[in-house]
Amino acid sequence: MPGAPRYFGQAETTIDAKNRITLPAKFRGKLPASPDGPILLFVVPGAEFRHLDLFDSESGMERVNALTGATGLPDATQRSRQNLLKTLEQVECDRQGRILLPRKHVEWARLSGAVIVAGAGDHMQLYTAAEAKAADALADIDELDPSNIGKLYDTALKKPQ
Description:
Number of helices: 6
Largest sheet: 6 strands, antiparallel
Order of helices and strands: EEHEEHHEEHEEHH
CATH superfamily: Transcriptional regulator MraZ domain
């Protein structure tokens, strides 16, 4: 089913001097199959803290379509969406799970050394522990506040009235 959430959990990888990462096997195995070689992914700066969002071709095209919006003269919101689309890049993931990330994106997200790959439902996020901490984002299960777990389930399971 297109757009179905499939990326969960987190793992660590490293980024080298040439801006290459190897996608951990737990995420690589969930990528849609590509019978003719490399798998195409979309990479775009993430919201709320400095990280990169990494989309497979299915969920990436859904995001592109949502951001493209209506045709005609753009309003301020549509111009902002177009600016975000300008930052979206397509990258290849080879059979070993290696990805060459765009230099500008790596610099913007401040990726170096150890990189966290985190599942975010329909996409993955790439960030450093330092950036996650600065934004009060979860970098490790030890940082999870048990009192918030029930609230998260309650809000996620509420049915619209």
